[in-house]
Specification:
9 helices; binds protoporphyrin IX containing FE; ten-stranded mixed sheet; alpha+beta
Length: about 270
């Protein structure tokens, strides 16, 4: 049997979502005054709120809570987060330092819970899928144009991870019966409506399956206000196991919806 050894294992980058929650009685004024922007600057992180022509590789983003919806995996740190910071870097030390310093600067007013992952080459995407699903996808836009951010952490079941990669691959394409009629759209076709309007970003745990208490995937999306219904439609299509049998093997954490803001202090205004 073919095994995961044929999948690319190279690490292209590192990323984390810091889920921040105000402690009971925590002094938000003190948290707002913490020098997080200066820390980001010292670490060479550019703000994604204004990504410019080429979205930055070493980056930071700030999101203020709009709401959150629980799902299969109970996770109070995500569900109750008041704010989320995204940090991306080629250097794992940058993520470690940003996370540790943020926790230190905000303690005890704010609790920090870190979800961390790596970026790897895609596993199931050949040339045609690359053209279809990635070359025409929207790239990151300024926060004013696409103010919504959605964090959707998830894992796949042990049954999924027992499957050979070739079988796992089949869930991303449509399947057909003996007469050639489409039986199920699969992941890629079910989500087509999102390609042009949803920015997508996925970090993986650096081992698969992830250990207990960690997620296999940290998925994240950005979109304009007018495209929020498309985000929900695309998620509904993925969760419909008749259209997308892959989701039988998915366990989702909470979906956290935030508003992108331009600077740390704006989280508190
Ligand atoms: C918006 C349109 C979307 C398109 C076109 C799309 C397409 C794809 C494709 C082609 C892959 C395979 C990547 C590879 O080769 O490894 C993939 C993987 C993945 N997608 Fe999507 N996707 C979309 C939306 C979503 C959404 C909304 C979610 C979650 C709510 C999601 C979660 C994932 C996850 C977790 C993986 C990795 C799965 C694995 O490796 O087992 N996707 N997606």
């Amino acid at each position: 049997m073919d095994s995961d050894e044929v999948l690319a294992s190279e690490i292209l980058g590192h990323g984390a979502y810091l889920c921040l929650r105000r402690s009971s009685g925590g002094d938000a004024g003190k948290a707002a005054a913490a020098p997080i922007d200066a820390l980001a600057q010292r670490l060479g992180l550019r703000n994604e709120f204004d990504p410019g022509e080429t979205p930055p590789v070493e980056s930071i983003a700030f999101l203020r809570r709009q709401g959150a919806t629980p799902a299969d995996i109970a996770d109070e740190a995500v569900l109750q987060a008041d704010w989320v910071i995204h940090v991306a870097s080629k250097r794992p030390e940058t993520i470690t330092e940003l996370s540790a310093e943020t926790a230190r600067l905000l303690s005890p007013a704010v609790q920090v819970h870190v979800l961390q992952g790596v970026r790897r080459p895609r596993s199931y995407t050949g040339a045609a899928m690359n053209k279809w699903a990635y070359e025409r996808q929207v790239v990151q836009q300024p926060g004013t144009a696409m103010p919504n951010g959605f964090l959707v952490p998830m894992s796949k079941t042990a049954e999924w991870w027992r499957k050979d990669w070739m079988e796992r691959h089949t869930y991303f394409l449509p399947t057909y019966d003996e007469q050639g009629r489409m039986r199920a759209e699969g992941h890629a076709l079910a989500t087509e409506a999102g390609i042009a309007c949803l920015l997508r970003r996925t970090y993986r745990h650096d081992t698969h399956p992830a250990p207990d208490g960690a997620y296999d995937f940290l998925t994240y999306f950005e979109c304009a206000d007018r495209d929020v219904p498309t985000f929900h439609q695309v998620c509904a299509a993925l969760r419909d196991v008749k259209r997308n049998p892959e989701w039988r093997f998915v366990r989702e954490g909470p979906t956290w919806h935030g508003r992108r803001v331009a600077a740390w202090k704006e989280l508190f205004s």
